[in-house]
Amino acid sequence: MISTVKGFTLIEVLIAIFIIGISLLGLAVGFSNGLVWIEEVRETSVANRIAQGKMEEIRGTDPADIPYSTDEIKLDKYHVYVDSPTEIEADLIQVTVRVTWTSHSGREQSRSLVTYVSK
User: Fold this and answer.
1) N or C: which end of the chain has fewer CB atoms below 10 A?
2) pLDDT tens digits, one per residue of 14-48
3) Can you give the pTM of this predicted structure?
4) Domain enclosing residue 61, as ranges
5) Of 47, 64, 56, 48, which Cα lies nearest the Cα of 118?
């Protein structure tokens, strides 16, 4: 009686290793992109909080004393701008707060919030 040994050939093992390697590479790229996305969301959240804080300062100010400038107020890597107040109606002023920054991926980002202040 002839016995046959059953097992995998070298080609089958190499193909399996190749498929597993490609799968692991795809997972690594996915995790890397996910981490970049999480960092961008964190930066945007910080910018929104900075803009909201500046809005609260403006809302607590007499409309005649609203601090505006096209000059930047720098907070870490964030640049805050308060655009010139625009009179919408006789007793209503529109103020825009803009926050810009360069993300860790090197792209310029910007967030703007608009509020209205009554005289």
Assistant:
1) N
2) 999 999 999 999 999 999 889 988 999 999 999 99
3) 0.69
4) 10-118
5) 64
Nearest C-alpha neighbor of 117 from the set 71, 50, 62: 62
Task: Give the Cα separation of 98 and 48 in Å (integer).
Answer: 10
What distance in Å separates the CA atoms of residue 11 and residue 16, rounded to the nearest whole number? 9
Q: Number of folded domains in the chain? A: 1
- Neighbour tally for 85: CB within 10 Å: 18
Q: Are 59 and 117 in contact (CB under 8 A)?
A: yes
- In which band, very low, low, confident or very high, does the pLDDT at 77 lie, cut at 50, 70 and 90? confident
Q: Is residue 52 part of a domain?
A: yes
